[in-house]
Specification:
single chain, binds fe (ii) ion, Four Helix Bundle (Hemerythrin (Met), subunit A), 142 residues
């Protein structure tokens, strides 16, 4: 029997925009896959795709933190080393929870972890935003 979740989809809000198209697209991608995971987990016809969604989410998270880390490093931002340490801890936790959740068709812990991370990450972006705006590069947004 499927558990009842208090969770729901996460909708994009304009307040999430960072003024950097590359970062915004990476954030969109994470939310898109988070919402896909939620959909698959609650779907009778697509529930078998939950496991595949884990792998995509892990790659999304890795690409996102490595990109932000690289942008901060390139401009010698004072926060680059702190970001690297925090992102290594984050990725290790995320991968561990994803591995635990594999085979679980109702990955409530993983969804909850990502949602909590997203809220905290948006708060952290208030601190990062000036650095990321300074690092605008040519990027073609879809
Ligand atoms: Fe971010």
């Amino acid at each position: 029997m499927r558990p009842s979740w208090p969770l729901s989809f996460v909708k994009w809000e304009e307040a999430y925009s960072q003024g950097n198209d590359l970062i915004d697209d990476l954030h969109h991608s994470i939310l898109a896959n988070l919402n896909a995971l939620y959909f698959y987990a609650n779907s009778d016809s697509c529930n078998h795709l939950v496991g595949q969604c884990f792998d995509v989410l892990v790659k999304n998270m890795e690409l996102h933190v490595l990109t932000e880390e690289s942008l901060l490093h390139d401009i010698h931002a004072s926060t680059a080393n702190e970001y690297r340490l925090n992102s290594q801890i984050l990725l290790a936790k995320f991968i561990a929870i994803s591995e635990q959740a594999k085979g679980d068709m109702y990955p409530a812990e993983l969804l909850s972890f990502i949602r909590t991370w997203w809220t905290e990450h948006m708060k952290y972006h208030q601190y990062l935003e000036p650095f990321l705006i300074a690092e605008k590069q040519l990027f073609c947004r879809i």
